């Protein structure tokens, strides 16, 4: 936060002191506001947002603590600095319990005030950054998407920025990663949301019919054209045209598509009349478009015309924090559709789901969950219900029941620990040594100085990840915490 961005409210009933504090601060170019009564202070904080509030406890019409309580109850995003000449330990403790950040006892000089204000601004800035990280992390659903992983947060941010514009969006990603969902999200967040979204799969339509599907045709344009037909371009007028698998399009048709994108005009098959439409383009492919250009299968000029805002969708294997969230979402959805009582997975089943590579991405996960629900009965999904090839993974998951109750490892990682009836899960196939244990990570070590708790926690988690060859879900299973806990903490450490 820049100093010139900071707004400060001074609540002081003494005109002399109020002007003095103003003179201390005005050289820093802060935006200053002054009030001399409690009621004026309450009115001001109701109408304006302040970064800092300098609050005198002794006001003519009320106690300053009442104003502090109001700020605290309304959760206003400001730091409060108490100013008092009547301070006592009791009053200071009370103000701190209602969220006061610091206090100044009269008299104080300019340096003391400036230092306190600057520290408060740094605290406000940090809290806003942490809140932004928290909001991003907790955004686990977004216009059809389900997922809270860092890669998906990036996708959400790009969609939010791109949707209001008219710019062409080029979505890339493996099959099953949600490219059509992405196109729908862009359309729903755009000013065109009340107009049609027309989707066309360029790989599912025969080459000879593709031009007619896009531009339409007139009666008699070719054998079988017994009636005129609207194309996707005309149906999408004022809305969005989504061309999926764009790299499958025939080279000759790519020339006509390029002209259409450049001019907004086209001709129906069999017609000499030009038609004009207003269309926003979203394209997608599961190939590498640049490699297609290099291979001569996709026009370079069309590529650069379409590739204005690229959105690469991550494969599911790079979204480990989202796998169980998606699985639970589909379990609830399909159980309701099939009228089955399924409501949860066993812990061991979740470890298997997290450990699978998912080459078919979200579509494969959907199919697996539906297969389980259709072919089985019960309220809990066990590993025995998993279809191939996931059932092969169950042989590599060893269940070890504790004979004693040692100190729980999640006490070292205190963020929503998961308890699974005193059962520990180990992925033996991916460990360098099946007998390797994380116990050594928790053994006390001799150090000259005591490490901060967060650093001890960080060392434990990083050691666990290393022992599991970088597989975070496996490390989470060993540490008996949710994988999302580790992802959240890694995100915090990376931002430090």
From TrEMBL:
Pfam family, one: HTH_8
GO MF terms, alphabetically ordered: ATP binding; sequence-specific DNA binding
Keyword annotations from UniProtKB, A to Z: ATP-binding, DNA-binding, Nucleotide-binding, Phosphoprotein, Transcription, Transcription regulation, Two-component regulatory system
Domain spans labelled Response regulatory: 7-121
GO process annotations (BP): phosphorelay signal transduction system; regulation of DNA-templated transcription
Native source organism of the sequence: Marinomonas transparens
Domain Sigma-54 factor interaction: 145-374
Residues with PTM 4-aspartylphosphate: 56
The protein's name: Sigma-54-dependent Fis family transcriptional regulator
